[in-house]
# Entry
Amino acid sequence: MRELLTAERVDELVALPKRVVRATEFAWRPLGNPGADGGPPGDTSRSHHKIMRIRLIAVGGRETFELVATSNDKFSMTLKYRDVQLARLCCSRVHRIPRRLGGGTVKGPHVHYHRPGFGEKYAVATDRYSHDDVNGALSFFLELCGVTGIPPLQEMLDLI
# Structure
């Protein structure tokens, strides 16, 4: 059964200090298999797509999380708790917030947060990363999500 989370509980879970279960999970891996995921055999158009899945556990607690990062021409990072996406870093240029969540437009880098009844449609602008800096974005998102004890980013990331 899906847990109903209040906005306050989502914010608490995002900020909760977490540690990495296995440091070896900090590695970009190919996403999909060209030819096996809908493209014709020999199609390498997705060969530059990468994914990183990192299992997290609350420091001093039992809550478990998963951080999923993807990178291709754009990048995205998501913090998941059970079957709920708590927060998602987004590199799209513009996002419109529903009126019932305050309305308005967020321009530039932003972070989406889960809100009851709206999923991840609520977003907050940030200037802590840029659209062309996946390492800076990952560093920011790990900090935002309270992840501690991570390896230095320059040693763990090998993009394209």
User: Anything to note?
Assistant: The chain has a mean pLDDT of 79. The first helix runs from residue 7 to 15. The first strand starts at residue 18 and ends at 20. DSSP finds three helices and eleven strands in the chain.
